[in-house]
Write a structure and sequence with these properties.
22% strand, globular, alpha/beta, 29% helix, four-stranded antiparallel sheet
Length: 362
């Protein structure tokens, strides 16, 4: 979904590299962890952009770089039209009121020594938005907005469940009336039933407060529910961007196809008949990513030409749908098919029984 109001966040060739140092006093620079390596992306005002990928692909680093919690190595970050890549700490402090973050772990992101009221009021005091009495009233108001009783302000984080703690984290982010929130896997540490409550709350808050979200997750079912658009990330780069419904109906990058094929379908007959598109091996090291297409070492559609020699650019194939794959059209048409996939048994055919003579004694 493209907002008529334009983008609130724009990344241009963003790179965030972390140096690898060696020696007794770590004085030798021997390499870099290329956590984010050339990401170009826009987040439209009022939308939820889902950012998905395996652990270690750089999703959280992108979110933290946007908030300038990490310093970019190169590239630019524009927030509401302003280049914030090289702002001073003083300028960033004023800007951060408009950009907030909800962290993954609700048990680690709240100070156990502070009351809930102090946790939620602290951003307001930091930015000089309210005096003591006004902050107290605002805390009670926000706690009720996120579904917690007003008297929760006098209690401490250990007295709450994981879902309630995540509501406290949301209340803290909302306390300064932000425009943009980075939600870094905000439901991954919660039970499934609680996840649904938090997702519904995020959607309600977005509608009520005109918020824009970057929703980082690895659970594709959750991302599908909340996102307007989805960006798929692999080893520090964006490999596919699409409206959510289009991505799930028509994935074009082999990595996206594989990720979606691993999502269980709640229909046993359909689940039994389909064959997953499996990946080979493990995620390569971001310190030494593969040359050319970074996915070619694991890709079930890899071809002997181009994949190992030429880096695919992120290109537009249809309205709002971009993909970084040389063979996206051929994969879509069926001309290029997956290979080297671990065999699976045909639907309806029972696997052969084990050879009892080869089993170890009980």
């Amino acid at each position: 979904m493209t907002s008529p109001n334009g983008s609130i966040v724009r990344l241009d060739d963003l790179k965030v590299w972390f140096p690898i140092r060696s020696g007794i006093v770590l004085d030798r620079h021997v390499g870099d962890i290329k956590a984010v390596d050339g990401v170009t992306l826009e987040i439209q005002r009022g939308e939820t952009l889902g950012l998905v990928g395996e652990s270690g692909c750089g999703k959280s680093t992108v979110g933290r770089a946007i908030l300038r919690l990490y310093k970019p190595t190169s590239g630019t970050i524009h927030f509401d039209g302003q280049d914030i890549t090289r702002l001073t700490e003083g300028d960033l402090r004023a800007l951060r009121r408009r950009m907030q973050m909800v962290f993954q772990d609700p048990y680690a992101s709240l100070n156990p020594r502070h009351s809930v009221g102090r946790i939620v009021a602290e951003p307001m005091r930091t930015h000089g938005l309210a005096g003591r009495r006004a902050a107290h009233a605002r805390v009670r108001e926000i706690l009720e907005i996120v579904g917690l009783p007003a008297d929760a302000a006098t209690r401490y984080p250990h007295e709450f469940s994981g879902g309630q703690r995540q509501r406290i984290g949301l209340a803290r982010a909302l306390s300064v009336n932000p425009d943009f929130i980075v939600a870094d896997e905000p439901v991954s540490a919660l039970d499934v039933s609680i996840q649904a409550q938090i997702i519904n709350l995020l959607e309600e808050l977005q509608a009520d407060f005109d918020l824009t979200y970057l929703f980082i997750a690895h659970d594709l079912a959750v991302v599908r529910h909340i996102s307007d658009r989805i960006a798929v990330m692999y080893l520090g780069t964006i490999v596919e961007v699409s409206p959510a419904a289009e991505l799930y109906a028509n994935p074009l990058h082999p990595y996206t196809i594989s990720l979606l094929s691993a999502v269980p379908i709640p229909d046993p007959e359909v689940e039994l008949k389909r064959k997953p598109v499996l990946l080979a091996g493990d995620l390569p090291s971001p310190a030494n990513p593969p040359a050319a297409c970074r996915f070619h070492t694991r890709c079930p559609y890899v071809q002997p030409t181009r994949c190992r020699d030429e880096t695919p650019a992120l290109r537009k194939l249809s309205t709002g749908h971009e993909v970084a794959c040389h063979w996206a059209e051929e994969i879509k048409s069926g001309e290029v098919k997956p290979h080297d996939v671990t065999p699976v048994f045909d639907a309806g055919v029972e696997p052969p029984p084990p050879d009892l003579e080869e089993l170890p004694p009980v």
